[in-house]
Amino acid sequence: MKKLLPLALLGAALAAQAQQAPKPEQLIKWRQSAYQVLAWNSGRIKANVDGSYNKDEVIKASAAIAAIANSGLGSLFPPGTETGKGWRDTTVKATLFTDAAGVGAAATAFNKEANELARVAQNGDAATVKAQFGALQKTCKSCHDDYRSN
Ligand code: HEC
User: Fold this and answer.
1) Are 114 and 136 in contact (CB under 8 A)?
2) Within 10 Å of residue 141's Cβ, how many Cβ atoms?
3) How far is ligand 1, taken at its centre, from the CA of residue 93, in Å?
4) Residue 91: CB within 6 Å of ligand 1?
5) Closest to 113 in 3D by CA, of 80, 66, 73
6) Using one digit for the tens of pLDDT, what is the confidence trace for 18-41?
């Protein structure tokens, strides 16, 4: 029994360490998943502003986008995740890890437009939502142009 105890402690210490520092593969999976959820909800909003408008659907989808925008996605891009495989090979560009000011500006613009979309979704005016959705999509594209390879 006495000999087993240190091993058990080591196991607990390793588990704690694993919790503090997720592996690159896990971080890349999380960020790819977060972006896929953004794509899902963007598609829902697009279907509503292009087709028949359902206020509740747009409120739900824009709240999901704002929640992800406000969740601190930047923490999923620590050094050491410039390359690697999550669900698939990461498509991040190396510049994201060096251009802190540019990335900060891109993230701030995205957050601002996502929160504004969630706000205007509440009034249910399709034309206002469509315009704001366009503003949000520009921030997706602009960040992808600069920091994503395809
Ligand atoms: C601040 C920068 C930034 C913003 C804003 C941004 N993205 Fe991305 N996006 C990225 C990066 C970087 C990747 C590559 C992630 C990876 O593969 O590690 C990515 C990947 C993706 C992917 C592919 C995920 C996969 O399965 O590999 C989709 C889809 C996507 N983004 C959609 C969106 C949508 C929709 C928006 C806006 C609502 C958006 N993104 C806003 C930076 C951004």
Assistant:
1) yes
2) 11
3) 11
4) yes
5) 66
6) 567 899 999 999 999 999 999 999
